[in-house]
Amino acid sequence: MDMPSPDQTVLAKKAHIVARLRAVLPLDAVIEDEIETRAYECDALTAYRCPPLAAVLPSSTAEVAAVLKICHEENVPVVPRGAGTSLAGGALPTADSVILGVARMNDVLETDYENRLVRVQTGRTNLSVSGAVEENDFFYAPDPSSQLACAIAGNIAMNSGGAHCLKYGVTTNNLLGVTMVMMDGEIVEIGGGHLDAGGLDLLGVICGSEGQLGVVTEATLRILRKPEGARPVLIGFDDNQVAGTCVSDIIKAGILPVAIEFMDRPCIRATEAFAGAGYPDCEALLIIEVEGSEQEIEVQLDRIVAIARRHNPVEIRESGSAEESAKIWLGRKSAFGAMGQINDYMCLDGTIPVSQLPYVLRRISEMSKEYGLDVGNVFHAGDGNMHPLILFDANKPGDLELCEDFGADILRLCVEVGGCLTGEHGVGIEKRDLMLDQYAPEDLEIQMAVKDVFDPKWLLNPAKVFPLAASHARRSVSH
Amino acid sequence: MLKPENEAALAEMIATGTGPLRIVGGGTRDIGALVQGDVLSMAEVSGITLYEPGALTLVARAGTPVADIEAALASEGQRLAFEPMDHRGLLGTQGTPTIGGIVAANVSGPRRIQVGACRDSLLGVRFVDGIGRVLKNGGRVMKNVTGYDLVKLMAGSWGTLGVLSEVSLKVQAMPETEATLVCEGKTEQDGVAALCAALGTPFDVAGAAHLDAAATGGMSRTQVRLEGLEASVAYRMDRLRQGLLAGFDVVQGAQSALLWDEVRNVTPFADQTGAVWRISSKPTDGPLITAALKASGLAHRAIYDWGGGLVWVLVTQDDTAGAAPIRQQVAKFGGHATLVRASQVQRAQLDVFQKEPTPIAAITTSLRAQFDSHGRLNPGLMGE
Ligand SMILES: Cc1cc2nc3c(=O)[nH]c(=O)nc-3n(C[C@H](O)[C@H](O)[C@H](O)COP(=O)(O)OP(=O)(O)OC[C@H]3O[C@@H](n4cnc5c(N)ncnc54)[C@H](O)[C@@H]3O)c2cc1C
Ligand SMILES: Cc1cc2nc3c(=O)[nH]c(=O)nc-3n(C[C@H](O)[C@H](O)[C@H](O)COP(=O)(O)OP(=O)(O)OC[C@H]3O[C@@H](n4cnc5c(N)ncnc54)[C@H](O)[C@@H]3O)c2cc1C
């Protein structure tokens, strides 16, 4: 994966830039030491690393504005950073960039149960937003598996999803407003406690813009009352296609589970060896969770089980207690960890129309043989968001490149069947060069034209999302 | 009048033409500043191109009548989750509402409070920009973060950024049953407080509205809707009536549906003369804004939907449609107001959409320039 070569003028005036940043921030909020900046050299896509010129850790919107104003004047690229859990290289710096981390901004600013919203600083972690309203039995719905670590800042930038988004939607459906600092230091308020945009829906564009339009410092989020209860059922099949049909039949029957998770045999075996959840050794396994009161849960599960029985499952495991529920989820929750035990892995996240599931799974297993790399599939089946995990050996020369090629082929397949490159992780640098497989040049042109409006100098996270060749002209305008 | 038959013809007409265009789907949502320009009708760019009930997705060309879409969905026991209103009664317009018009105006009904707006159901768009380029964004799958989300931007852009040629939507299964809990005689404050309380329960409220006495022409009415499996709705209704909504009566089936048609289509204001505003605010601010209007001497009637977060205000006797006090109060509380129905004179003289703060207005203007550099698409409709 190429990154643009650093701007020598910027490198040459590092001392000057650092001095200006120090003038507007507390002493410990500017990190420029070559060893200490290493802490910011990568996100969760660890194959790519580069320490930034400097990292800053502002504590307020005003400080963020001061930093951006300086970087704007000095023409220094800025890479916003939340918790650095991006799997797409979204927070990867370049040597001439300043990392702007919002981790110190993690206050809850307002809690309003009547209007069902909270306003937080965006450095706050996803889970601790729910934590802040838990005592009143409320929660913030989008729940990425990284929720213990990842920040609302990154969630907004990536429009992150979670296991329960089949019912509750992803970040964009739960975001009411933001305070954002533009690259030139101007502070804007978009949205708020009301539900709809007054003019153009700018909030909709900012969510998912991967830190390229502005630095989001505060967010108003929708909170919901917790359901009375939840319970999963586990269903095993000896055929992927049948499992896929079962999912579609459940959806057609008008039942809306909060989650429908799917694991295939390689993944089941790996997690069994790792976690010992007692899963059946079968071709495909579904974990379906429903919510409500005891009685409502019974009614929904009865219907789901009745539909599943029509497809000759090899196993149906209903849960009779909280322990049994936890056991059903155990394997799924440890799936990534289990695969990581075996090998290094790369996690993809293309989305496909649910109807294409059997075909895509078959093609992936064929390609796996061609490439000689194993793949496990674990994903959100209700919405077609796949997570193929390709296993490789980082110490073996050439294996990473082979794995990336295989990954690219899988993503092209997703697009070919009517899906997309990424369902929740974002483009970052990882899928940047595949964008032309999904979009025509003019489709990317209009997206880049949107960036022109928010960040005319292309200083905010400039080397991401768009193929470098496509964004080259815009990035290389001398300022 | 321009009447392209398909997307390619549409692109050609825009690329080769000059001068402003007034984009019309079905011509039923005559909202916004008056637009001068050649009429561009999308009525012929019509037809459902893909419908997969098992994946809850439907793709249709922009000129497809909403009625056709609703019929296709109903045949599979499905529907549009966001329950778009039919503006014809309120605006006294005729014609056939199209799905493109719904999306362009981000029209969403009472269920918005539970499942989100039209923009939240919109998965992808194809459109033609102001210089005739055919563009696409999003797709037909439920989860998609590939590049910027221009899908949301196009929803509610009122045809000012591009002419939609095709839209993909996430649809919803029709519930087994619905029921509404109704109570008469509450004040606006008490009514909205009850709605907010109900929305704060785990019972998945699918509609929460209050109509003031002037709107119903009798007693005020507070109503809360539940939808889902029979057993579920019965259970939730009991729990609410034993607790927060004690004293509410139960209305079921078709009668319940009628109550919500009335709110969705703002029927009580349809045959009343006067200007109609649509105010979007924080739910608890809804009744505070109307109380302030009353205190300022502006006579009006109000219907509160979305738990109080959407207030339809009918202003009867004022030449300027009550614009000054309404703008003033909305500015004070936060949110925005749109003049949905007004006389030609009022529409020509007043801002229909809320004026935006300077930095936001600047972004909006620059975005328009990127999508429509010659200012040809519904120029001036949203202001500026
Ligand atoms: C084990 C694991 C499991 C995961 N599971 C999921 C999952 O289930 N669902 C899912 O969607 N994702 C998942 N992810 C991906 C990742 O956690 C999400 O993308 C998350 O939202 C990133 O948040 P972050 O705070 O770590 O952001 P970072 O990694 O710091 O940054 C991500 C992007 O946001 C931008 N950004 C950061 N802060 C700001 C700001 N203040 N203003 C503007 N832009 C900003 C950055 O520039 C970058 O482009 C997972 C990751 C891991 C490692
Ligand atoms: C005989 C007659 C005469 C009229 N004379 C006038 C007049 O002089 N001045 C006037 O302002 N109005 C006039 N109207 C009303 C005019 O039709 C509407 O004001 C306006 O064109 C919006 O149409 P319509 O599409 O609301 O309906 P909808 O289809 O409901 O559209 C709603 C909004 O979405 C936009 N839109 C619709 N389809 C698309 C699409 N595919 N892509 C992008 N945007 C779309 C529309 O421009 C409109 O802003 C007249 C109507 C009739 C029937």
Automatic annotation (TrEMBL), chain A:
- Give the GO molecular function terms: FAD binding; oxidoreductase activity
FAD-binding PCMH-type domain sequence ranges: 48-226
Gene3D superfamilies registered for this protein in UniProt:
3.30.465.10, 3.30.70.2740, Vanillyl-alcohol Oxidase, Chain A, domain 4 (1.10.45.10)
Keyword Oxidoreductase attributed: yes
Domain of life, source organism? Bacteria
**Family matches, as Pfam families:** FAD-oxidase_C, FAD_binding_4
Keywords attached to this Swiss-Prot or TrEMBL record, sorted alphabetically, are:
FAD, Flavoprotein, Oxidoreductase
Please give the cofactor(s) recorded in the UniProt entry for this protein: FAD
The protein in question is named: FAD-binding protein
Organism (species): Shimia litoralis
